[in-house]
Amino acid sequence: MPALLLDGKALAQKTEAELTERVASLYQKSGSKPILATILVGDDPASATYVKMKANACNRIGMGSLKVELPSSTSTDELLAKIDELNHNPDVHGILLQHPVPSQIDERLCFDAIDLTKDVDGVTCLGFGRMSMGEEAYGCATPKGIMRLLQAYDIAIEGRHAVVVGRSPILGKPMALMLLNENATVTICHSRTQNLQSHISQADIIVGAVGIPEFIKADWIKDGAVVVDAGYHPGGIGDVELSALHDKASAITPVPGGVGPMTINTLIYQTVESAEKALADKQ
């Protein structure tokens, strides 16, 4: 039986239709629209492309976007001052600091300066800590998008063995904790894990988030596993050898069109949530 395709692009489009209605409702109630502020420091072309994609997603649902561009010579203090300004702007409901920033900037300090109520990309240590404890917080956009994708397709998580390959602070680590919070049994692996194949072969759910093209081989994965590929590399390939899994796995995310669309979708989804909470707090 062919694997179920977990179509992130289709889910993102469906969610955008729902978000458009929620944005319109917010405008009727408050006379204003949610605004996502994006901060781009320097002139990295890939980062500029990502920021543009996020602004386009905001526009599609009728939401506002505020683009803040700072020169590559910007200091940590100057960036902190800009973040503080946005934290205190009541019209801004979400703040995104585009990674990476120039090397002279203390990126972690700047991420953690973002107000928790506006941390819609889930990058603060406080937000990560609250999420890990099962408290209310906005999740890191990519792992949260993966969880939304699994839930939309009714993929069972509770009691299943999930193996996450990758340990980055914005993907692998939060992914593992989100799965754990949903009662999965979780193993975290990475590029230096010994006997990696043995760990992966036991997985009911495998998340490839190691950042190496086709690092995870199809013959390591057991029949009927759910395969989530969070990687993207030139040529439209991910971190998993997906081509041989269409008749082996029970469900897979395509590359592209699986995890990627859910990342930006989750960012705007959480910005709308932030605006709704801000309006409720006023009333």
Terminal-residue CA separation: 52 Å
Order of helices and strands: EHEHEHEHHHEHEHEEEH
Give the class-level CATH name of the largest domain: Alpha Beta
Estimated radius of gyration: 19 Å
Number of strands: 9
Strand content: 5-15%
**CATH topology description of the largest domain:** Rossmann fold
Instruction: State the strand order across the main sheet.
Output: 1-9-8-7-5-6
Q: Which homologous superfamily in CATH is the superfamily of the largest domain? A: NAD(P)-binding Rossmann-like Domain
- Category from helices, strands and their pairing: alpha/beta
Please summarize the sheet with the most strands.
6 strands, parallel
Number of helices: 9
Count of discrete domains: 2
Helix content estimate: 40-55%
Mean pLDDT: 96
Which spans of ≥5 residues are poorly predicted at pLDDT below 50?
A: none
What is the global morphology?
Answer: globular
Assign the CATH architecture of the largest domain: 3-Layer(aba) Sandwich
Main traits of this protein?
283 residues; Rossmann fold; six-stranded parallel beta sheet; three-stranded parallel beta sheet; 9 strands; 14% strand
